[in-house]
What does this fold into?
Amino acid sequence: MGKLGAVAGGVVVLGAVYAGSGWWLGQKVERVLPAETVKVAERLGARDIKPGAYERGLFQSRATSVLTLDVSLPPEPGQEPEIEPGASVQDQILKGMEAGRKLTLQVHLVQTVKHGPLAGGRPAAAVIETRVDHVDGLDADMRRALAKTQAPWADTVVGLDGSVHTHAVLPAGEIVPSPETKAGAAAPNEAGDDDAPAGTPFAGRLSWQEGVIDVRTAANRRDQDIVMSWPGGTMEVPVGDGPADDDENDDEGTGPGAARQPHDGPASSTGRMTLTLNGLSAQVKQQLIDPDLWLFAPGRYTMQLDDWSMKLTPPQASGGKDRVIFRLSELQGQGEGTLGGRLFSQVDHAEGKLMVMNTPLDSLVMDSKMASLDVDAMRPVQDLLQALGRTDDPRKVLPDEAHTRTLLQGVAAASPDVKFDLAAAAGSESATLGMSARMTPMRTGPQQRPLVADLMQSLTARATVTLPKAWVDRMQERFNANNPDMVGHDCDFACTLGRTPVFQYTGNAWTLDASLSGSGVYLNGQRLF
It folds into this structure.
């Protein structure tokens, strides 16, 4: 009995130690979980994060929080804003945003925290399971459209050594907007949806496969590995065909690519635009300068993309063939970021294949380089980008001229420069595009000149394009072979380039050379202003 008593006593002591350690580890997680949740939610675009109740238990706790997201939807058909002649692109975008619907969504999160040291059946300080409980703010149409989707979720394992491993999943899903059926339409069901009745116009579709991302951060909060894999997804959008538009005097646009209107003819007169992305993956090994400066981190990455394409399918009744607007395939990329003192540099390289308007290129090669980016000066840039991601009105967060000047002065102080080169091969010839830009320190002290004038004095930029005649001829041959219905136009590629004022023909190639410096703006050696 004495031995049994000793064993029983030992079990009780071990149980007490385990329970106590679980309680202690649970308290440690409770102290950091709300702040870490806020950081992640802000990076995902949440405007506001309100932590809720934290129900602490001995071996398991439960935390709640509410994320507020502002969502802008495109204007309803017929509600598009009128754009004044000569309006800038920025004004057009802002007017479109103003005319669209504004939704404020509240995402209710529930986080189940399993305390260590054996959390979830594994050695860990804690396992945090993050799930979406429900979303407020969705109208009936949106709920119907989202009926075949599931909310993303994440599991985070906090190691006993302080390391963190987050496994996040976007479940496969499909969004099918509610179509507006025109009275009398008797077209077949083009959407391919067994649940939709015959005669229902195709209203579009967005579908995707399950995507996964794993983020492992070492106990030092600096070394980080990221692995992302997404098999892909497809978005299909209905587009009208000119002859099928039954309103001759409207201003909505006709021809392939014109958006389908609710009052247009039957679904059989509707084509579709299909945007597809397949086989996207990336692997990153980086060292965070500090946990909050995530945009600029030294390290290396590789990425792969099997296919990214846009295809136009004409209405079935037209008898036309599918046309590939563009297709980027077999893309392989890698890059490396380095840190010298407080100056960040990045070098990137990528190779793939490209098709434009059914016309293939043999290869596409891209090289880019950024140098001398002061990480301390770039922190406000990161904050601004993050703020833009959280708002539905950029004017609310864009800085005024004084703050913009301060931001640009900080960036320019280290004289950063950027270079980008692109080469597209067809046969033995390649067309090239080169761009470069460099900033020198901007004036400081009392400001007497407009910001634009000081910026132009600081900025030096150049862009060059070279299109060899043999390359243009080869692309014309391939275009004619793959687009027989478009052959016979009065002006071919060479003719079009000859009529374009910015190009000049020298040495069996069309070239463009544009530059900006403190002395003015130049085009092909001629000063414009």
Notes: Residues 2-43 form the longest helix (42 residues).
